[in-house]
Write a structure and sequence with these properties.
By secondary structure, this protein is an alpha+beta fold. Helix content is 19%, strand content 42%. Keywords: Signal.
């Protein structure tokens, strides 16, 4: 084991212990889906957390680098549900059949078509990025970037801050079933330490479903 690896491992163990006492989940991979999140209608911050992909890349390179680059806090903010009103549906009339439009009007009148926005952020001493989006749901279906019932949501991935190395967006896409959508974001980090290039991908999956839940 190299001196750098031992130092990094010891520091991350200390961070893990601190996070356990603080109440966070220190070593959970950023891409792990853990089920509907209890704080999904408000906002909450978890941390300190450990970016395992970052740890593995630095240990493999065996360079002297501050441990702080692999420790981050994560925040998920989700808006309150907004009911799609009948009055707002007129713009969809021309793109739908009469039967589909009437079905949408009935659903809106019953309050079953709703929408939420979310913002999920990664923040540490040297970088910050975010994943944001709007989705719609009606109790049986959730949709984001695809248009359905005259409405279309979105997903965006953005780098807010970098100090000392470059961050690029490798993926910002969507998959899943009609009832649960998987919003993926992959951020690629590249830096040079002791003349050694180091790079890794941090992959996130944020999930939304037909009942309006948001989790990772």
């Amino acid at each position: 084991m190299t001196k750098n690896k031992s130092k990094l491992t010891r520091s991350l163990i200390i961070v893990s212990m601190a996070a356990t006492l603080w109440g966070g989940v220190a070593s959970a991979p950023a891409f792990a889906a853990t089920g509907p999140w209890a704080g999904a209608t408000d906002a909450a911050t978890s941390g300190p957390l450990i970016d395992q992909q970052c740890v593995e890349a630095i240990e493999k390179a065996a360079v002297q680098l501050s441990d702080d680059v692999c420790v981050y806090k994560e925040t998920l903010e989700t808006s309150a549900p907004e009911v799609v009103s009948v009055a707002s549906l007129q713009s969809a009339r021309g793109s739908m059949s009469t039967a589909d439009f009437n079905s949408l009007v009935a659903a809106a009148a019953a309050g079953t078509v709703q929408t939420k926005t979310f913002t999920r952020t990664y923040d540490n001493v040297v970088v910050a990025w975010r994943q944001t989006g709007r989705f719609y749901y009606d109790g049986t279906r959730a949709w984001v970037t695809a248009s359905y019932r005259g409405y279309q949501g979105y997903q965006t991935c953005k780098v807010d801050r970098t100090i000392g190395y470059a961050i690029s967006i490798k993926k910002c896409d969507e998959s899943g079933s009609t009832s649960t959508r998987n919003l993926r974001a992959i951020f690629t980090s590249n830096l040079i330490a002791d003349k050694v290039p180091i790079g890794w991908d941090t992959e996130w999956h944020t999930y939304v479903n037909s009942t309006g839940k948001v989790w990772w």
